[in-house]
Amino acid sequence: MSAKNIFWRDKKLPFLEIRQTEASTAEYKRHSHEEYFSVGAVDAGETVMSCGDTERLVSAGTLVFFNPDEIHSCNPADGHMRSYWMMYLEKDWCRNIQKEMFGCDDYMPVNICYALDQELFDDFLFICKSIINNDDLFDAEYELTRFCSYIFEKFCSARREADIHSNVLGEIESYLAENFFINISLDALAERFRQNRFHLLRSFRNAYGLPPHAYQMNLRIQRAKEMLRLGSSISETALAVGFTDQSHFHRMFRKLTAATPGEYLKGQ
C-alpha cells in the first residue's frame, strides 16, 4: 500500500491547515513550526514522538501538541507504517482566543506535549474529518474555537472567568431561535450581546449542551422535519429553513437524523 498525503486549506478558514497522511513510513528530521500551534493524532499504527526532553510511543487515543517554535519530530515505530492527522493553527488566531480567555497579550504555550484523552482524541478526529469533507465550514470555526479553548483552558497556566449570566444566555438563545434560518457568525453574536467570543461559546455550551451554531442547526433540522411531515417538498423545505444548497441540507439532515430527507418522507 502506497502512502497518501492530503493537505487541506480554504480561504474561509485562512488560519488553518489540515494534513491527513495514510500508510506512511516517511521520517522527519527534528523541526519546528514558527507561526503555528500544532495538534496531531495517530489513527492507525504507532509513532515515536520526540518533543524537547520527552520521547513517547504514541498510538490511537493520544493527542500531541507542539507550540510555535517548539522542536519536535514524529517518526514511525520500527519502520512500520502509520496513519495520522495534523492540524496547524496560526499563532495569532490562537493568541486572540487566549486574549479573550485570559487577558494576555502574548501567546501562552500549552504546558504538555501529549494527552491521553479518548474523548478529546475523538473530538479532534471528528472536527478534522468534518472540515476536510466540507460538511459545514461555517460551523467549523465554532468547533475549532471550542476545541482550542478547551485545550488552552486545561493545559495553559491561567485562571478562567465566570460564565455569562443566565439572563443574557436566555436572550442569546431567543435570538438564535427567532433567526434560526440565518447564518449568524460567532463574531456577530458576540458583538450584538457585548460578550467576548470565548465566554459566549463556553457559557452557551454549558447552558444548552451545544455551541450556538450547532444549536441553531438543530433548530433548522427540527423545523425541516415538521415541514416535511406537513407536506412541503424537500426543495421548498431546504430554502425555508435557510439552506440555499440542497446538498448541504441533505448532509446536515443526515448528520442530525441518521436519515436523508427522502427517507424521512417515505416513512410518513
H and E string: EEEEEEEEHEHHHHHHHHH
E-strand count = 9
Shape: globular
Which structural class do the helices and strands define? alpha+beta
Overall pLDDT score: 89
CATH topology of the largest domain: Jelly Rolls
The residue ranges in which pLDDT falls below 50 over 5 or more consecutive positions are: none
Instruction: Name the CATH architecture of the largest domain.
Output: Sandwich
The CATH class of the largest domain, by name, is Mainly Beta
Helix content: 40-55%
Biggest sheet, open or closed, and with what strands and sense? Answer: 6 strands, antiparallel
C-alpha end-to-end distance: 46 Å
β-strand percent reads 15-25%
In total, the number of domains comes to: 3
Strand order of the largest sheet: 1-2-8-3-6-9
State the fourth-level CATH superfamily of the largest domain. Answer: Jelly Rolls
Rounded to an integer, what's the Rg over CA atoms?
Answer: 20 Å
How many helices does DSSP assign? 10
Pfam families: AraC_binding (PF02311), HTH_18 (PF12833)
GO molecular function: DNA-binding transcription factor activity; sequence-specific DNA binding
Keywords: Activator, DNA-binding, Transcription, Transcription regulation
Organism: Denitrovibrio acetiphilus (strain DSM 12809 / NBRC 114555 / N2460)
